[in-house]
Design goal:
heterodimer; A: mainly beta; 6-stranded mixed beta sheet; B: 7-stranded mixed beta sheet; 51% strand; globular
Chain lengths: 108, 120
């Protein structure tokens, strides 16, 4: 199995840009997906296939990739963006789906 | 709109069994793969299992392989998770999730979850 690594926490002030990274060897070959989870709620997909946004997700959310590291960027952070963010990928060779440990975004 | 509603959670003793259900609506159920994902208290997300649109292909996390069985009834638009030989570490909120419209690699809609507590 493989692992995806995320920093436990990121803090930014309102209006600033938050960058949440996810690293893993498999990410050089596989797509990455990002989910937002607010306390007591189910996860919500915010980025798919590295950089695509589902309908209804603000343009402030974007994804990028560089080698084995992918990044979720949230521009103009708002208080409502405070949540846990999880990266996820799938290893099709062994039919396993993996989540990163999650990053808690705090808006100061 | 697309909706997934889990049920069947509860408190169960170690070693016992429990079956979760997930009722789906708002999309063509029989054309979509489906996942189960769980989240232990205060912990991150853990993928549990996936089933193909027709039920012919099933894959499991190593942590549940041999104990859990995913299945579906396309005539009832319902997904199931049969959990046997439950352990304390299976305590979690269990979410069903619809596989992405472009690929089964991701989950594009999630239910609100049902809580399973394994305790004596």
């Amino acid at each position: 199995s493989y692992e995806l690594t995320q920093a436990p926490s990121v803090s930014v002030s309102p209006g600033q840009t938050a960058m949440i990274a996810c690293s893993g060897d498999a990410l050089a070959k596989q797509y990455t997906y990002w989910y937002q989870q607010k306390p007591g709620q189910a996860p919500v997909l915010v980025i798919y296939k590295d950089r695509e946004r589902p309908s209804g997700i603000p343009e402030r959310f974007s994804g990028s990739t560089s080698g084995t590291t992918v990044t979720l960027t949230i521009s103009g952070v708002q208080a409502g963006d405070e949540a846990d963010y999880y990266c996820q990928s799938a290893d099709s060779s062994v039919s396993q789906w993996v989540f990163g440990g999650g990053t808690k975004l705090t808006v100061l | 709109q697309v909706q997934l509603v889990e049920s069947g959670g509860g408190v169960v003793q170690p070693g016992r069994s429990l079956r979760l259900s997930c009722a789906a609506s708002g999309f063509t159920f029989s054309r979509c793969a489906l996942h189960w994902v769980r989240q232990a208290p205060g912990k991150g997300l853990e993928w549990v299992a996936i089933i193909s649109f027709d039920g012919n292909n099933k894959f499991y996390a190593d942590s549940v392989k041999g104990r859990f069985t995913i299945s579906r009834d396309n005539s009832k638009n319902t997904l199931y998770l049969q959990m046997n030989s439950l352990r304390a570490e299976d305590t979690a909120v269990y979410y069903c999730a619809k596989a992405g419209s472009e690929s089964p690699e991701y989950m594009d809609v999630w239910g609100k979850g049902t809580t399973v507590t394994v305790s004596s």
